[in-house]
């Protein structure tokens, strides 16, 4: 159980629930996972557009290593419903605490930002909002509708919370017809108690399965991090679980420890191991797989969506 705290005082810690945890060693990153610090002209332009429209991005809040590359191309991932999460996952760098009220202007702010950035494909995610009766489902719907109105040619990928104990929430979001429905498992089930204690592995699997039952034409997607102490056979079993749920697209990336108070990196998985996971995942029937040390849910999402569509067309003949 996570104790929520009032985060209105900016002097308070970003992760109060982790303050008393023992420090863990932050391992030195290997050469294959280092990236250049952001600072290009395109990065600066994207940053200004995001700030001018009062947009929160998961790129910044989660400390994504790909922010320099993506923002240089004006590819920003929107994070709706504020910057404070009601959960306290051991891997995550997003703030934990009591969230603020939903901003009624946010759907149109997101839509205008999508148009200004010229996004052909946008990824929209959110913090967990366990404090809301529907977990924020209606807000997702309003954001999707606003983007459709302002930028009708933009394809929409959503990365949602699990809507745990929020009856009817999933159905509401699927009815809004995003092009891709993504919900990340994050890790193998044996790690849930320590890595993702507020979530339930088989609930997340069932959520993805229900999306397909409601709308068989909707693309579904999920992702995990490796390097959290999982065993190889656990990753392969997770792939099978996702295929039983008829998930189309799997992403696998390296876990990177945000601070010494977060879950430790057990090891850095080699590029060759990521390639092996990719080959196995394709043999299990995924239409699209992205597996590399720097893979993240929204990294190259637009290009990957085009590949996903073509893969389905080829499968259907």
TrEMBL record:
Residues 1-10 have a biased composition (Polar residues). Its main location: cytoplasm. Keywords: 4Fe-4S, Cytoplasm, Iron, Iron-sulfur, Metal-binding, S-adenosyl-L-methionine, Transferase. Pathway: Protein modification; protein lipoylation via endogenous pathway; protein N(6)-(lipoyl)lysine from octanoyl-[acyl-carrier-protein]: step 2/2. Its EC number is 2.8.1.8. Its cofactor is [4Fe-4S] cluster. Belongs to the radical SAM superfamily. Lipoyl synthase family. Pfam families: Radical_SAM. This is Lipoyl synthase. Residues 14-23 have a biased composition (Basic and acidic residues). The keyword Flavoprotein does not apply.
């Amino acid at each position: 159980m996570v104790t929520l705290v009032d985060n209105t005082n900016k002097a308070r810690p970003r992760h109060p629930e982790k303050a008393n945890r023992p420090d863990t060693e932050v391992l030195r990153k290997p050469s294959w996972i280092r990236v250049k610090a952001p600072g290009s002209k395109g990065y600066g332009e994207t940053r200004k557009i995001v700030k001018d429209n009062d947009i929160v991005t998961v790129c910044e809040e989660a400390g994504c290593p790909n922010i320099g590359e993506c923002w240089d191309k004006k590819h920003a991932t929107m994070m709706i419903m504020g910057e404070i999460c009601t959960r306290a996952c051991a891997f995550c760098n997003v703030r934990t605490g009591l969230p603020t009220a939903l901003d009624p202007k946010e759907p149109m702010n997101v839509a205008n930002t999508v148009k200004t950035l010229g996004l052909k494909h946008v990824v929209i995610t959110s913090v967990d909002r366990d404090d809301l009766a529907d977990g924020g489902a209606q807000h997702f719907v309003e954001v999707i509708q606003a983007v459709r109105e302002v930028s009708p040619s933009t394809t929409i990928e959503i990365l949602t919370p699990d809507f745990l104990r929020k009856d009817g929430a999933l159905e509401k979001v699927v009815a809004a017809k995003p092009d891709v429905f993504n919900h990340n498992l994050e890790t193998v089930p044996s790690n849930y108690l320590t890595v993702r204690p507020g979530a339930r592995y088989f609930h997340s699997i069932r959520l993805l399965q229900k999306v397909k039952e409601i709308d068989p034409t909707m693309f579904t997607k999920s992702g995990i991090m490796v390097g959290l102490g999982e065993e190889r056979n656990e990753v392969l079993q997770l792939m099978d679980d996702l295929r039983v749920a008829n998930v189309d697209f799997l992403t696998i990336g390296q876990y990177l420890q945000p601070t010494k108070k977060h879950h430790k990196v057990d090891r850095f998985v080699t590029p060759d191991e990521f390639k092996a996971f990719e080959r196995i995942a394709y043999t299990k029937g995924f239409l699209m797989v992205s597996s590399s040390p720097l893979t993240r849910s929204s990294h190259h999402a637009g290009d990957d969506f085009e590949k996903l569509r073509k893969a389905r067309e080829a499968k259907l003949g």
